[in-house]
Amino acid sequence: MIEYNIWGAFLVGLMGAAHCFGMCGGLIGAFASNLPNTNGNRLANQLSFLISYNAGRIISYGLAGALAGASTAALGYMFDVDSYLIALRLFAGIMMIATGLYIAQFWFGIVQIEKLGQGLWRALKPIANRLLPIKSRYQAVIAGMIWGWLPCGLVYSTLTWSVASGDALTGALIMLAFGAGTLPALLSAGVAAKTLSTWVQKKNVRRLSGILIVVFGLQTIYIAIMQLN
User: Fold this and answer.
1) Most buried by CB count within 10 Å: which residue of 68, 76, 138, 218?
2) How many structural domains comprise the chain?
3) What is the separation, in whole angstroms, between the first and last Cα of the chain?
């Protein structure tokens, strides 16, 4: 179950490229176009800053996953939460299905979930804005750590897997795997945003990505139901 969740989270991040472009592609494209040229090689310079930025973003995902898993682990020490964890796994599967339907453009209700994080983001956004323009790799890491808390339905739905894991380390690994899956899309956003963005927005690409994520959700629900027996 643990290995399945980690690989599943990676594939959700990878196949959710269209959603990632919608949420962060414009930001990263603008970020990359205003970077200082520190070594004379513009492409290499962009990649080094983008890797730093995305490292910070993924650190935030890992922290969120650890906190989510630790919260249910703490409850486990105080109460018998086996049935509670199974219920959370069912919910995680439902969230994956909802996310897949959104990516495939069949249903858009998942967007409402992004409103849950808007209060936190309103507090963090002024701090993030003060870091712009990015002038150093250290600054890029810090900016990534802050922008990692940008409200995102895809992040929230994957985070439910971390909650359902009932373990801080597993929760962190799930979100780190998700973040790693988003890397190809968001690194490309900085150096080839227009070309790749056009490709991932194609209807067939979005449909395939969404259907694969729905399959992961269905399998998560199936595993949870089997644990009830």
Assistant:
1) 68
2) 1
3) 16
Q: Is residue 93 part of a domain?
A: yes
C-beta separation of 117 from 34 below 8 A:
no
Query: Model's pTM, two decimal places?
Result: 0.80
pLDDT in tens, 149-185: 887 778 888 898 898 888 899 999 999 999 998 887 7
Report the alpha-carbon distance of residue 155 to residue 149 in Å, rounded. Answer: 9
Residue 172: per-residue pLDDT:
96
* Relative orientation angle of helices 82-103 and 42-78, to the nearest 10 degrees: 150
pLDDT at 62: 97
Which range of residues forms the domain containing residue 74?
Answer: 2-15+50-228
Cβ contacts of residue 219 below 8 Å, gap of 6+?
A: 4, 8, 93
| Blockwise average pLDDT, block size 10, the chain, 229 residues | 74 73 61 61 74 92 95 77 77 86 82 72 76 80 86 83 89 95 73 57 78 86 82
**Residues 133-141: contacts with CB within 8 Å, 24+ apart?**
133/34, 133/35, 134/31, 134/34, 134/35, 134/49, 134/53, 135/36, 137/48, 137/49, 137/52, 138/52, 140/49, 140/50, 140/52, 140/53, 140/56, 141/52, 141/53, 141/55, 141/56, 141/59
Q: In this structure, is residue 198 part of a structural domain? A: yes
Residue type, 16: G
38 domain-assigned: no
